[in-house]
Design a protein that fits this description.
The complex is a heterotrimer of chains A (289), B (401) and C (315). Chain A is mostly helical and 289 residues long. In chain A, 72% of the residues lie in helices and 3% in strands. Chain A is globular. The chains are: A mainly alpha (289), B alpha/beta (401), C mainly alpha (315).
Chain lengths: 289, 401, 315
Amino acid sequence: MDLALVQVLNALSFSALLLLTGLGLSVVLSLMNFVNLAHGSFYLLGSHVAVVWIGAGLPPWLAFPAGFVAAAAAGALLERFPFRGFYGRPHLMQVLLTYGVSLILADLMRWGFGAAIRAPGLPEALSGVVFVLDLPFPVYRLFLIAAGAVLGGGLWFVLDRTVWGALVRAAVADRGVVETLGIDTRRVLAAVLVLSAGLGGLSGALGAGMLAAYPGLDEEVLILALVTVVAGGLGTFRGTVAGALAVGFALTFSKVWFPEFANAAAFAAMAALLLLRPGGIVAPPLRQV
Amino acid sequence: MRQASGHPAPSRRRVLAGLSAGTGVALLPAPALAQGRPLRIGMITSLSGPFTALGESMRAGMNLLLDQSGRAIAGRAVEFLVEDDGARPEEGVRRARKLIGADRVDALCGVISSGVALALRDVVTEARVPTFLLGSANDLARGAASPWIVRPTKTNWMLGSTAGRWTWERVSKARVLTAGSDYAAGREYVGDFAEAYRALGGTIGRQLWTPLGTADFGPLLTAIASERPEVVYAFFAGSDAVRFLRQWKEYRLAGRIPLVGPGAFFDQEDVLPATGDAALGAVNTFNQSPTAPAAAGFVRAWRAAGRPLPGEFSTTGYVCGQVIKAALERAGGDLSDWEAARRALFDAPVETAFGRMPFDPRNGGAVLDIHVNEVRRGEGGAMVNTVVHTYEAVRDPGPAG
Amino acid sequence: MMREEGRARRFAPMLVLAAVTAGAPLLAGEFHLRFLAEILLLGTAVMSLDLLIGFGGMVSLGHAAVFGAAAYAAAVAAIASGGSLPLVLGAGIAAGTAVAAAMGAAVARTSSLYLLVLTLLLGQVVWEVVFHWRDVTGGADGLRGLPPLALGPWRLDGARALLLLAGGTAIAGLAIARSFTDAPAGRALAGMREQPLRMSALGYAIPAIRMRAMLVAGAVAGAAGSLYPFVNLYVGPGSAHWTLSAAMIVMLVIGGSGSLWGAWLGCAVYLGIQTYVSAWTDRWQLVVGAVFVLTVLLLPSGLAGGIRALLRRRA
């Protein structure tokens, strides 16, 4: 019984990490209808920055905002060129462009940060364990669950309940009308992309303690984020949360029940999910034809 | 019909290969006068993909040996060509064919991934090119051995079986729980350990497996914690190793349960720098150790360029160079009569950074001293693989086994 | 992207392929012949992907699974019963078509991102089977020690024979693909990509047409995949991994999607950079990425589009 409970906590912490990585992708996809396959690169950049920051002896809690800022800066540069020209283009062109950019970023990061696997030392407060019915569970993972909940909730609140969020959603829905109100939608859209990139970097900094940082992680994270966001359903935050929980629990319990075939079982489960609900778990209402 | 063109821009490659050798060049003797045709050695290693760091180390190790020899062996200048296999066997085979067919190398060497090594076996045997292969899959010393391949390195069996012996003799005679990455190398290490341990009278408990490339070891560690084992024998590589060890500590298992594994799991260069003190006290069996007496000269030269303690692949690259040098010197600088050169090489052991290295003529594999390393705190608080015992002259069972 | 071309232009790519296949053995050595054979075979698989992406608008990240499954089926068949060419081709085409059919059934009604993720997941399930079924596929180590190819009494295992087979497969594949795109089914596919609503309003059954495209693509990729293990006398799980699917998409875009024959150009450029640039610099992946991004930005129709524009300006 206690074993099952701890495994549920394991699944929740992994889901939290997936939510964190998926949030950035979901923001830009759901709000701006822009597929950003360079998202994994932003994650890896944030991870590397966290490693370097903590390794240099700087205050460890500031590593997370540092990851956010670094990735947001990269996002701002890329937004200026070449992403800006591709907002209205078909998804395929966005996929191709951002994938190509991710190849370039991956090699630049390998050049700059080296190819060795690196991981940050965690701050003291996060290094302990709590005992859940006699079994140890790391404090760091509880922190991830909390971070996921706070960030997810905060983002939802800002975008759904504040004027700024309404402005963003309006700018995406009907750019022309918002322009007539005198608002520069170009800057609004740029801000969304920069926010999304920053979120990617922040989740990278938060997750570095769990996943480490090395070349190739960007591709792995991208796949996970893509499956999370798409399986959950595009267009809503609820969808991304649902997707993160689904993928997190699938991957965790497949390791518990089918250890050797864990990935195959999890992928098959997610594929079955998409077949049964082609629009994802929280599917946007589709026009019936 | 053979290609008519000569070698493609060798000077540029040589410059690049030489540049990567680093600052050591300035401290070394002037290059020996090259007599006769230059010697072309091709290395296939991973410079992209998951093993990039390991491949760069291997290249650097070989370059150090070449620099120390004044970039000449047996009186001939050396052209060192390095190709990237990206840890993909199809890629590796294509590069091998390029080195053999287009670049006309005199010898091939390298290879990290056993998949690439196995794929190359047929290519180099058919092309009749002397190859100094560094893959360590058991099959390379048995069914996939070849008269054209010399292997100056270990097999997975050597590490798994000595770990079984050590665990029984010095750690505990209790039931052992095993955990590993579910792929060829993991299966070999755990399987050979279990066989050796059982042969001595021990019992193996649960055998846990995870897919290669696992991000979250939480479920596995929770399962291990709930079993409360006396000893754990495990194998993970690369990023999996780093994540497992860090999470091993997070889940409060480090220091409470003895952990044993093969050396790659605790590689000095690849894994230990990123795991902090999570691996403190763990034991591994390995043919390489930065504290091994035979490696002292190499470790000094390696660190002189400002690098941290060497791990497996830098040492293996260096040793590969030493063996190639010995082979050429014993063959009078010419490998074209490979049968004679091979016999001369196997006639007497070679002095290398792995120790005195005799070869097994059945499969061209090395007979090695396997060290038992304990991970201890060294200078500056860094984790160091420290030799506590050595099993001497361990020989793989070979083709009959 | 698609324009009506004169009869001469239509057959030009096949003639070029034939010329390359016939002429190369006179000029190149063993390594270059095998490299060329690899480009021809992989290019054929990329060309079949063009049917899906360029013509059908279905971006699939599972095409390597189709190709890899065919390669493994051919290798296993050869190891079990000797390298007879009809057996090898048959096994590969059957396996490729079967995997493509399964994927086609799954994605018949999905589109865009959902299709991308679904094909990725299904492709990885295939990879997991290949990776874990050690007894049959050799697992992570792959299969080696393949018997030489033979057609009746003639042995086909030299580099020259391999090149001829690869060239023949490429030309046949191109012919099949062309006849599909010219046929009513192929035209409907293109229409479906541009105006799905209108096409279904006109009574076209979109899922059935997509399935047909998948089957044709699967068969062609299967033929190419069946010969692939004999280039290196080895087949490994990398042939079925999603990263190969992604590389195929890169090759297709560089070459020019929608042109069919651009596939071989893109494949040659990609493999060429990978093989030759990496000897000069460790940053070859940066070069590939840069070429790819530049192509997307400046030459959306790829090299094929660029060549076509050049020829049009000359004409």
